[in-house]
Amino acid sequence: MHAAAMTVPPTNKVAIVTGASSGIGLALSTSLIAQSWTVVLADINATAGAAAASTLGPKASFVETDVSSWTSQLALFKSVFTRFGRLDFVAANAGIDDKDAVYADFEAEEPEALNFKTLEVDLLAPIMSFRLALFYMRRNPDKSGGAIVITSSSAGLYPFSSNPEYAAAKHGLIGFARSVAPVLKREKITVNCICPALVSTNLAPASLWTLIPKDQLTPMSTIMRAFHGFIDGHKDLLTGQAAECAIDDIFYRDPVDFPSQSQKDMFSRDLGAWMSAYDM
Known about the structure:
The protein is of the alpha/beta class.
């Protein structure tokens, strides 16, 4: 199933893209600029981010951001809303691969603590971005809501033994998006995930590209179609979806089936009952 064809949004639309100095984030920023969006590129790499924004022209700007820091993300979102007075789209896209080996055998008498930076950047940071996007989209003067797209991965759908922390984070993002989407639909705020297969970016080790046949790589154009499908789908409140992008195809993946009627009843129970129980 393919995403909807791209349409040109109004020129006053404002977007934040994290992880925007390279790879998917830079490609998305470039695509949005071409469609007359105002785009704020956010990345921890100040040199590459500033250069990218300069190349993209006057509708692009750059804010150095450590997405694993609440303070840094808050400053980003606050500056954007203060400057432009609205926020229409957020791509929570920044990500890294595993930074430690969960399988490691240590020579010391006790195991060393695991480096959790992968989970901080790949799971906690997008949830921070979501919370901030929600805050500011609710304050759009025309009450138009907004679209949030989180970059998960095909590793969020399948086991990925070489990078188990990455896989755990990406699985978590899909569960998070599917969980919050129904609650926010009435506010015209949509939350979706894209799940790219292997795309040629600097996320993976350079040696990987000598081992993978080029015809097994997913082109950036497929990823852009998925993003724009969700952006354009905001007007129809397309939400809670996980779009798996594999080579030239986009597949909208359903959650696993309920194994029994009791489980279906439990998770399909009136949302108000659960909200009331947790005093939300």
